[in-house]
Amino acid sequence: MTHRILVVDDEPAVTDLLAYNLRKAHYEVLVAANGREALHLAREASPDLILLDLMLPEVDGLDVCRELRKTSSVPIIMITALGEETDRIVGLELGADDYVSKPFSVRELMARIKAVLRRTQSGDIENAPAALLYGPGSMQMDLEGRTVTLGETTLNLTRLEFDLLYHLLSNAGRVITRERLLEQVWGYDFAGDTRAVDSAIKRLRAKLRTVSASADAIEAVRGVGYRFNK
Predict the structure, then answer these.
(1) In terms of residue numbers, what domain contains 203?
(2) Whole-angstrom Cα distance, residue 137 to residue 133?
(3) Distances (CA, A) of 94 to 61, 71, 75, 82, 109
(4) Cα–Cα 20 to 30 A to 55, which of 81, 103, 115, 216?
(5) Same domain, yes or no, for 73 and 105?
């Protein structure tokens, strides 16, 4: 299967570099030079992954991410400048899966793309039961349908958030380090930035709390990682 990747950046030197390396790795590549074009291609061409620069004309990268997350869980890797720390954090909180900073290593970026696609294309979580229950019928994960329900409410989770909740829930009562979550959920076999983990956890907890404060049983263990309390 050939994966389709949408590259969004207004710098031709960047898009040319990325397109060359992606095609060399046998990916299909689409290119957008502004946010409006990116939204159009994302909706019409259904890419498997988006590389999204934050500083874009017409519609900036944060607004692109915000709009996409209303209807799509397509993996998004942000491309940011070194000085865009605040925007980077906001992008992660809006639902981006990860980020790389300019100037970036093409080799590292390709490894991250491969890891994200491996996770998103792997199908159902391996060796898992058809459903995983927590509490007195309050939470149910349908692993085949990839849905989570709390009572009568179905949570709107991205694929990343679903996998993250699964790993926390299936290890309920045990602390999982941020590095272990990067390995299990993001699929990285190299040192990654754990801020992506913290931002994804924050989004997940907020969605759980929209249904019930008691549904958020995720506890941050300072300096280590996270635990889903039984």
Answers:
(1) 131-228
(2) 7
(3) 11, 13, 12, 19, 21
(4) 115
(5) yes
Q: What is the pLDDT of residues 19-54, one digit of tens each?
A: 999 999 999 999 999 999 999 999 999 999 999 999
Q: Measured over all CA atoms, what is the biggest interatomic distance in the chain, rounded to whole angstroms?
A: 56
Report the C-alpha gap between 29 and 19 in whole angstroms. Answer: 6
Instruction: State the Cα torsion 165-4-10-200 to the nearest 10°.
Output: 0
Nearby residues of 184 by Cβ (< 8 Å), 6 or more positions away: 167, 176
* 183 φ/ψ angles, rounded to the nearest 5 degrees: -70, -45
Domain end point (choices 120, 145, 168): 120
Task: Please classify residue 114 by burial: count the beta carbons closer than 10 Å to its beta carbon, then call 0-12 exposed, 13-18 middle and 19+ buried.
Answer: middle
pTM here is: 0.73
**Is residue 20 included in any domain, yes or no?**
yes
H, E, C per residue of 85-112: HHHHHHHHHHCCCEEEEECCCHHHHHHH
Domain end: 120, 150, 177, which one?
120
Nearest to 52 by CA among 85, 95, 20: 95
Clarify whether residues 141 and 87 are in a common domain.
no
